[in-house]
Amino acid sequence: MRDFPLPLALTARLSPIVVLACAGWALTSGPLAAAPAADHKAAPQQQSASNTTAPSAPSSTAVSKTYASAPAPCASIAAKTVKSLVPGAKTTGKEIPSTNAKTRRTCSWNALEGYDYRWLDVSFELMRSDAAAQKTFEERTSEKSGGGAVPGLGDAGYSVVNLTTEDKQQTREGTVLARVSNALVVVTYNGSDFETRKAPATDEINTGAIKAAKEAVAALQRGQQG
Q1: Is the dihedral of CA 202, 208, 212, 215 positive or negative?
Q2: Domains of the chain
Q3: Is 82 helix (H, G, I), strand (E, B) or coil?
Q4: Which residue in 50, 105, 186, 207 is deepest, having the highest Cβ count within 10 Å?
Q5: What does the pLDDT read at residue 145?
Q6: Other beta carbons within 10 Å of 1
Q7: What is the pLDDT of residues 112-148, one digit of tens each?
Q8: Span 69-106, pLDDT tens digits
Q9: Any long-range contacts for 219-222 (C-beta under 8 Å, 24+ apart)?
């Protein structure tokens, strides 16, 4: 096979140890305030059944479920899915070191098979509350305009695909962001063809990214909740 020079940006992506770095976030959740007890006089004898006050009904407001730790990201995507999306990659993936693996974990798969290159990242990020996760979700989706909602993906899902060209080499990248309670699931999937210098079709990248995101959300929901 003849040597084929890679564009600078994509050459860098072929070396995840050099390119990737992760930062952890230390997040905490606030305590619930206790309600003060009502002041009353002690009864000299047991009250009769007719005078006993019935206990109040429990509040109908559901307490939101909070994820206390991130699942193992490299185990969140099925091996057959990795083989389909990233041909030639090791299905075990490579977890990226994090300063706080309890609140942020990321796994990466990438491979160059022939002239076709694919890259897949899956990240789990835990926020201090559902509201904080929702705020971050809204901020990030507004920054990545041009996409659309993904129905049925967690509490909220969003997908966007972009095409970039450098040194006449196209790369198409899809990003899917999902919020599940206080957790964010972020999937990045991209590809290039170094022979034709074209990028994969938008539908291929978008469909692949959403498939990986659905599996990652399912893995999160199967995990331990706090």
Answers
A1: positive
A2: 70-222 (2.60.120)
A3: helix
A4: 105
A5: 83
A6: 5
A7: 999 999 999 999 999 999 999 999 999 999 998 899 9
A8: 999 999 999 999 999 999 999 999 999 999 899 999 99
A9: 219/71, 219/75, 219/76, 219/77, 220/67, 220/70, 220/71, 220/76, 220/124, 220/180, 220/183, 220/185, 221/180, 222/71
Sign of torsion over alpha carbons 144, 145, 151, 155: positive
Is 22:104 a contact under the CB 8 Å cutoff? yes
pTM (predicted TM-score): 0.71
| C-beta separation of 172 from 165 below 8 A | no
| CA–CA gap between residue 207 and residue 223 (Å, rounded) | 25
Instruction: Give the pLDDT confidence of 170-216 residue by residue, as tens digits.
Output: 999 999 999 999 999 999 999 999 999 999 999 999 999 999 999 99
Cα 70 from Cα 49, distance rounded (Å): 51
Amino acid in the structure at residue 35: A
